[in-house]
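User: These chains co-purify. Model them together.
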Amino acid sequence: MSVHPIEEIIHPRTIAVAGASDSGRGGGFVSPLLELGFKGAIYPVNPKYDTVSGFKAYARIRDIPGPVDYVISSIPATHILELIDDCVEKKVKGVHLFTARFSETGRKDAAELEREVLRRARAGNVRLIGPNCMGLYYPEERIAFNEGMPRETGTVGLASQSGQVVGEIVGFAGQRGVRFSKAFSYGNALDFNECDYLEYFTQDPKTDVILMYIEGARDGQRFAKALKEAAAVKPVVILKGGRGSAGTRATASHTASLAGSLKIWESTVRQAGAIYVTDIEELVDVAVSLNFAPPITGRNAAVAGGSGGSSVQAADQCEEAGLRVIPLPQDIRDELKAQGSPIWDWIGNPADFSIAMGDETIGTVLMRMMAQHPAFDLLIMFVHGPWRRTGREFDLDKHMESYNLSGVTRKPVIAVYADRPRSLDEKEAAWYQNISNQIEERLLAAGLPVYPNVGRAARAASRIVGYYERRPQ
Amino acid sequence: MSVHPIEEIIHPRTIAVAGASDSGRGGGFVSPLLELGFKGAIYPVNPKYDTVSGFKAYARIRDIPGPVDYVISSIPATHILELIDDCVEKKVKGVHLFTARFSETGRKDAAELEREVLRRARAGNVRLIGPNCMGLYYPEERIAFNEGMPRETGTVGLASQSGQVVGEIVGFAGQRGVRFSKAFSYGNALDFNECDYLEYFTQDPKTDVILMYIEGARDGQRFAKALKEAAAVKPVVILKGGRGSAGTRATASHTASLAGSLKIWESTVRQAGAIYVTDIEELVDVAVSLNFAPPITGRNAAVAGGSGGSSVQAADQCEEAGLRVIPLPQDIRDELKAQGSPIWDWIGNPADFSIAMGDETIGTVLMRMMAQHPAFDLLIMFVHGPWRRTGREFDLDKHMESYNLSGVTRKPVIAVYADRPRSLDEKEAAWYQNISNQIEERLLAAGLPVYPNVGRAARAASRIVGYYERRPQ
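Assistant: Joint model of the two components:
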């Protein structure tokens, strides 16, 4: 298999940042490279300065001594053709154009300038990411475009027309333990487009899950084919921006995209066997279980550990999400009765542990039975924090032991550590927040997907079951 | 108008807590009364102790000298009849039965005991809240059932079969500035039921908005009538627990409710003109705008201040919620052009302020125009935090001034202060959290409903428009 053209440009030995300065957004592209520890040379390019971020600055790309593999451009559009010509002359492989104000303005001259950029780049063998985008995040190569992007690498790949969306997905999924192989913000998709990024991730051995935020596709047939091929080998999650009439207008002024008919989009995604989501929260929720849980291939859910009203609502939300909350199997009841449990006939699925007050072990015992029972395809496990602050120290090890199912089951286990209202007492609130953070860290360390409520957990699980149901065996 | 029977029992001069102790849940009912500062006498009742929480304890209710108006019972069900007899003898007006293990266990003898409790209470002229519930939260009377319930009173009334749900709604809505007139957790609804609480709130002059969490109704016709009468005079929001088959099983074991057909429920609620929601988050979201915004009576939304991908998604989510994100009116465009704005032809609705980089005033100018323009029924306003920490101190006053629309419009304005990923740098994360808290406090102090994303804001607004559309004029 030949090397994918995107792969050709994302391993630069040297990066030039055109328009770099010690203030403003241009400088902002140098500091994330420094923060992540990019190993090659960094060349700021700006005729106004002698140095930027402590590096010698050059007036033009052509003035840089030695080879330049990759250029980040944050100069104004008015000077962009000169920059492209310089890149051609320096045999630059790839250019990321943060530079904007092209076709997305809706203006004729700006669109014509954009076309000229593409013509010169193609003629000169320079490939483009963008314009009007944030570019590349590639932790293994120590390349980032925002400060604070995680240094660790992972197996989730992301391509998005919006840079803000990349920041949000990497950030929100990151808080929940997900790490990325690469992420691309690609804006107006002038050269490489959604199909290229999708095909790239499909063949990338370091990417197990593909996430995309797309405002419009240039070539619907090619995209449908690429999506089908991708979904056949790894889960693909698609968030489509510009679904209604106002959103369609907004995509035009954002990335000059033709949003296309929503119905065609939805059916294309589903027929290809990919997962269709409608907001970033849902996209991240699906990514979390794809990243951490074994494949969720059936809809029979065991739900354990809610209490009272939350158990009732857990049942409702699971069913409304498309899971089946089947009754507690009779053999589990019989076993509980044999063990002398006083609630063997009362407890059900969802298993409301609040009715077991006084019998602290019933929860753990029952949860393990549910996790092992063949009638269930997955277990949704409510994890609790301490009830409130008392004189005694909270024993986190002992507390977490009751949720430890390692070695008990190979089924998907999804943890719900529910948000609860902040205490009005600031000390108690801080104490609880600190313990909550520790509990979430323990759950992540155990490799569990964690959700703040059962509705979101159930909807994510159901989307994933849908993927495995549609995928050709 | 005669005094409502619920009103008769919720102004006690004295409260006895049966089963009180210095540890466990019984004691838990004394401490919230102390914390809120209940002004009457508190009598712990427990034959095992001489004192509880520093108060003299009595062996039985009948031993208490002087009148007892209200009793909270947390004794086991096995002793409940004796307690009821004592209450009759002491001429107690109201009893809250935290005591559980009645009909919700599904057992015949427990259900028979429950019926006997009701017979004796009725015969003795004692009214009951519960059993199997958390009872009354009434800040004006300094009565609460959990520690940390707000001391301030408000105009939202809440009745819920689940005590946990009351805690969550009071807590989550409380964090967003909502305060309550009264809240009832009423469990198995043995004496007062959902109709009584609803009728009570309908006639209560201190309640402007009614929230209910209901697992089942005993008398569907009476409930439909009460709901119609309530919704005709004030907004009513209904969350129905037990919507599917598993949820129905769960309501039976939680509060012994017959969940009823979901379709009948949904159509009953809608035909009555009440607002139907499907989870606590949505219920709280609707309550926040009902509490803070003037009536939202039309669907034409102005959406201002998003950027790039977030503007596209704001448009999608508003439209999917049932709002109309109409194009920017031509006279606003003309005015921007006359003022010399370089983006008069490019900016739209949603108004993406990120394209105005360099012109810091355009956002404020345009937002004010949108807020005043007759084509719009409401304004959804993105509020931002600082981009990141810099050497300069963040000027909160100046920052918030650009969002100040007081005196500019009487239209509903909904603020979206979007969650953003936590920084990996702990210092920066703490700094940002601190500023975020201050921004949210300022928005609350300005009387604005605040949401963490535009989808939730739009769905809440749309539910409220639906209420005013259906309400007879």
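Residues 294-470 of chain A form a domain with the Rossmann fold fold (CATH 3.40.50.261).
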